[in-house]
Amino acid sequence: MDRSDNPAKPAAGVRLCDVAELADPGSKGFRFRAERWLFAGFLVRQGEHVAGFVDSCPHAGWPLAGIDDRYLTRDARHILCAGHGALFDLGGACVAGPCTGQRLTDWQVVVRDGAVFTA
Questions:
Q1: Domains contained in the chain, number
Q2: Residue 77: which domain range?
Q3: Which Pfam families does the entry mention (predicted)?
Q4: Where residue 103 sits, what CATH number does that domain have?
């Protein structure tokens, strides 16, 4: 999805947070609004690597977290869809549930000077 598909998707260069604000492993959600549009995304940190994903289940289209920023399982080994229990590896591939074989949509981010920015 490019920005033209959703005007609320932030442009490249928007500072999201410091890497230190993310547990290791950990996750954090973000919401951006532009008029009637909403863009929801989240970050997952594992070590020094931070990945971004669009907050939408590939099976049902609803947000993954039942509670803000709770994208990971209790053992922090998988991303969990709270709606139907699908599990995704930390790279976004569905490994269990009704969307097995599908993956989350990437949200391009970059780490620079200890902070995470949209790319």
A1: 1
A2: 3-118
A3: Rieske
A4: 2.102.10.10
Of 35, 3, 29, 1, whose CA–CA distance to 16 is shortest? Answer: 29
pLDDT tens-digit profile, the chain (119 residues): 455 589 999 999 999 999 999 999 999 999 999 999 999 999 999 999 999 999 999 988 899 998 888 999 999 999 999 998 999 999 999 999 999 999 999 999 999 999 999 99
Rounded alpha-carbon distances, angstroms, from residue 39 to 24, 66, 113, 114:
25, 17, 25, 24
How distant is the alpha carbon of residue 22 from its chain centre? Answer: 12
Q: Cα 24 to the chain's mean position, in Å? A: 15
- The verdict on pTM exceeding 0.90 is yes
Note whether 68 and 40 are within 8 A (CB): no
